Amino acid sequence: MTQRVGVVGYPVEHSISPPIQQAALDALGVDARYERWAVAPADLVAWVAGLRAADVLGANVTVPHKEAVLPLLDELTDTARAIGAVNTIVNDGGRLRGDNTDAAGFLRALDDVGGPPPGGEAVLLGAGGAARAVGHALVGVDIGALIVANRDAARAERLVASLRAAAPAFERLTAVGLDDPALDGALASCALLVNATTVGLQPGQRLLDVAHLPESALVIDLIYNPPVTALLADAEQRGARVLNGLPMLVYQAALAFERWTGRQPPLETMFAAARAALA
Ligand code: NDP
User: What is the chain's mean pLDDT, rounded?
Assistant: First the structure.
């Protein structure tokens, strides 16, 4: 029986998960089809029920369902519960388990470029779903401090509160608005800057000035299309090391693949498929 797996979102046409995952399934000879499932919020409950079918391996979940799907599942991993968002559902014999592979995907991408600067300070821009995953990843590694900066400062405060609850031993956590002067100081001394906002999706779009960023900083933009955002171009000009969101995208996909199939994901195939889809 050909099995099914797919990405659910609304809209979902933009997702490049289908070519990445289908390439991996085909490379390992798994008899499964990866589909796009456009499901309106009003239809989510009925759609989740259908996921329990015997021919469904599971799903990836994208905007706007990452949070709404939580109460509809049978169990959640600790990571998904802490982050408060699910990006991967596994159908385990009719029981649906919600997981989040964004945090681990981010850490694997960070490892590829040498890991977090030990003891250094990190600035995280954004407080939406992706920022929550990155924030939870960062409070678990060896960084000295984390400043979460968001346009809506109250949302940054809420993220910091959830990070404090998840990692009580990580003490140096601060939330600021984008117009807070403390952000300038943090940028001037940070070892790691991560953009987890949508600013930069449009070519030339900038959230802030990185003229005072240390040359030793590592700058990661979660955006992968365009491959070089204005932030990354500015940071590179400063001499900083830069990384776009493609490795995180592929690693979170690979971890989901592993959950569904129990097989080692063919990473090179997945990277090649991602690059081809974006070319
Ligand atoms: P959300 O909609 O949940 O969050 C959007 C964030 O962007 C919020 O912090 C929001 O601030 C901020 N923002 C939006 N517009 C502006 C603006 N004009 N000025 C300042 N801040 C703004 O999105 P996600 O968290 O799901 O995604 C964020 C980015 O991360 C996207 O570009 C997405 O493509 C990327 N991503 C990459 C992944 C990867 O694997 N590489 C995985 C997941 C996401 P506010 O709270 O004030 O509205």
Answer: 96
Q: In the sheet where 173-177 sits, what is the strand order? A: 173-177, 145-150, 121-125, 192-195, 218-221, 241-243
What's the rounded Cα separation, in Å, for the pair 193 and 174?
14
> What's the CA gap between 98 and 48, in Å, rounded?
11
Nearest atom in ligand 1 to the alpha carbon of residue 178 is 20
**Atom 23 in ligand 1: residue holding the nearest Cα:** 128
Which protein residue has the closest C-alpha to ligand 1 atom 27? 130
Tell me which residues are annotated as active site: 66
Tens of pLDDT, residue by residue over 23-54, are 999 999 999 999 999 999 999 999 999 999 99
Residue-wise pLDDT for 163-173, tens only, equals: 999 999 999 99
CA-201 nearest atom, ligand 1: 32
Catalogue the long-range contacts made by 77-86 (C-beta closer than 8 Å, 24 or more residues apart).
Answer: 79/103, 79/104, 79/136, 82/136, 82/162, 82/166, 83/132, 83/133, 83/136, 84/132, 84/162, 85/129, 85/132, 85/133, 86/61
The residue nearest atom 39 of ligand 1, judged by CA position, is 249
What pTM value is reported for the model?
0.97
Q: Do residues 138 and 162 lie in contact, with contact meaning Cβ atoms separated by under 8 Å? A: no
